[in-house]
Specification:
Helices cover about 35% and strands about 15% of the residues. Helix 1 links the parallel strand 1 and strand 2. It is α/β, with parallel strands linked by helices. The chain has one domain: Response regulator (Rossmann fold), CATH 3.40.50.2300. The chain contains five helices and five strands, in the order E-H-E-H-E-H-E-H-E-H. Strands 2-1-3-4-5 form a five-stranded parallel β-sheet, sandwiched between helices.
């Protein structure tokens, strides 16, 4: 069992989102935690793939411990990033954060290997819950199956 009192290593989270406001809310939510997390932001799928593959201008980029993907990116979209992760970087977990409440989108993302699918929160408290989930997941990764991890409030609202 991990020692929660020991200093935690710095973790890198890549946020792939074309909405700067959502990134700012995530950054503010991560700032409230005691977890040592460095956030890196790219605005589109092509930049995310270049970042993950360490292509220019991301040749010196830190490898992420977690990738947070907006499903509604401009084409080729968030699913392309998720597919690339599953093909090339299988060891890097992905969380999908999206405005889509469609169950079909959630099921497809989970089938593509996402460890979690969350609908973008309306309230900052729900961003805090989501960040709590992600930091706990990164801290305990490997000790439990990812789908056994609790779901944060506000992320289970889905439509058929």
């Amino acid at each position: 069992m991990p020692d929660d009192t020991a200093p935690q290593p710095r973790r890198n989270v890549l946020v792939v989102d074309d909405n700067q406001g959502d990134f700012i809310l995530l950054r503010e939510a991560f700032a409230t935690t005691s977890e040592p997390v460095d956030l890196h932001h790219v605005p589109d799928a092509q930049s995310a793939i270049r970042y993950l593959d360490r292509q220019d201008p991301y040749a010196a980029a830190a490898s992420p411990n977690l990738v947070l993907i907006d499903l509604g990116l401009p084409p080729p979209g968030g699913k392309a990033v998720l597919q690339h992760l599953r093909k090339v970087h299988r060891q890097i977990p992905a969380v999908v954060l999206t405005g889509s409440t469609r169950r079909l989108d959630r099921d497809e993302c989970m089938h593509l290997g996402a460890v979690h699918y969350a609908v973008k929160p309306c309230y900052f408290g729900d961003y805090l819950a989501l960040v709590g989930f992600m930091t706990t997941y990164m801290r305990h990764r490997g000790s439990d199956h990812p789908h056994d991890t609790p779901t944060p409030r506000g992320s289970a609202i889905l439509q058929a």
